[in-house]
Structure prediction request, 119 residues.
Amino acid sequence: MRGIRGAITVEKNEREQILTAAGNLLEAIIEANNINREEIVSIIFTMTSDLNKVYPAVAARELGYTDVPLLCYQELAVENSLPRCIRIMLYINRDCELDKIKHIYLGEAKKLRPDLSRE
Prediction:
């Protein structure tokens, strides 16, 4: 089993921005890692406390992931942390080297892991 991380930011605490960003991030992770639906074990979403208009897992359901276990948490409120940030931890059943996993950081979230961020 492997875990794949990702993060993205939104400009405003608005339902549509949250859903669009969460969906875009999830799709980017899946595409970058060539993930088949059958490989997905579960997906955990977190959001910073300044985002509260919708569960980000709704984006996954809207993309058709109705049979995948999803869970949402509030990110720890750490002083000076990146605001309006959505994070994903996607678990897949795959036997591969760790360096073959592509973690995805988009928008302002690239600041979190510049070593992993790609254009």
Observations:
- The chain has one domain: 2-111.
